[in-house]
Specification:
Immunoglobulin-like, 53% strand
Length: 301
């Protein structure tokens, strides 16, 4: 939904505009520096509305919603102590709202908030900014009626109200945020198996090792590790890596060749195989890794 009144008729002092431009750069760099571990997720159903007579509200009322073609995204972190909402409105406006605390957010009142991300571990943080306007400092509070998290910073539900005063003034912007998302998708988990038999090539001295990976979410899995062998008091070592597409339902085979780093080739007999399987969770953006070490017998190949 478009703002209820036009913002184009107002003018601002040049110094105020310059200060705002500098603040926007600070806000942007701060967002990058303080981003949580989870990737932003689209909001299936949500709304943001606010109004006020301070620098942010400017004496107007604003209302945005997914249902009216405004695009919302939300992210949190594994500690669940920050929720950040971004709005890219159909009319070209953009806004961001941050709610934070020193511990996991839950239903309740959060008085004494200052500008996020400059709140310390024991103080609530709050920030509403957008369309080139933001507070250098602020005081305020917010109340959470409902919040439901999933794994890895997934935000399923959020209903909250907030009050924000720029630069310690009496004027305020008041608003509310509502978010509703589906049940969180499954987290990626990986299984890794290393076959107890491999091959030592008599042609090039490489060691071929293999095994299987499994997953409960489709993912591209990188398998890498080291093969180590001791023969006649000589340590033979080589690294290997490969990539396989894993789909749920059945383990997927992987095969890789380790090239010896020195001039001594791998030979038949026992070797130690260190294996690591890693993949990016397609739903949450974090990297999942499992590892395994096995004694493997190489045969001539």
């Amino acid at each position: 939904m478009n703002p209820s009144t036009s913002r184009g008729a107002r003018s601002r002092p040049l110094s105020r505009i310059a200060a705002t431009l500098g603040l926007a750069l600070v806000l942007a760099s701060g967002a990058l520096a303080t981003a949580g571990t989870a990737q932003a997720q689209p909001v299936e159903s949500g709304s943001l509305s606010f109004a006020g007579d301070d620098w942010i509200g400017g004496g107007e009322s604003y209302a945005y919603s997914v249902e009216n073609k405004d695009k919302f995204s939300v992210t949190s972190n594994k500690d669940q102590n920050v929720i950040s909402v971004s709005v890219n409105a159909a009319n070209g406006s953009w806004w961001s709202l941050d709610l934070a605390d020193g511990k996991a957010l839950k239903a309740g009142s959060y008085p004494g908030a200052i500008r996020y991300p400059f709140n310390d571990a024991g103080q609530p943080g709050l920030s509403l900014s957008g369309d080139g306007r933001g507070c250098n400092t602020l005081t305020g509070s917010f109340d959470i009626a409902q919040v439901v998290f999933g794994p890895n910073g997934y935000v399923q539900k959020l209903d909250a109200t907030f009050v924000q005063h720029c630069e310690g003034g009496d004027a305020a912007t008041k608003g509310e945020i509502h978010i509703s998302n589906p049940e969180p998708p499954a987290e990626l988990s990986l299984g890794l198996d290393v076959s107890l038999e491999g091959q030592a090539s008599t042609l090039n001295g490489k060691a071929t090792v293999h095994g299987k990976v499994s997953c409960d979410v489709p993912a591209q899995v990188e398998v890498a590790g080291d093969v180590t062998q001791v023969k006649n008091k000589v340590i033979i070592r080589g690294a290997y890596s490969t990539s396989v597409a894993c789909t749920p339902g059945a383990p997927v085979a992987w095969t890789a060749k380790a090239v010896p780093t020195g001039t001594t080739p791998f030979q038949k007999g026992l070797v130690e195989v260190e294996a690591r399987a890693s993949a990016v969770d397609p739903n949450y953006g974090n990297t999942v890794t499992v590892s395994r070490t096995e004694a493997v017998r190489l045969v001539k190949g």
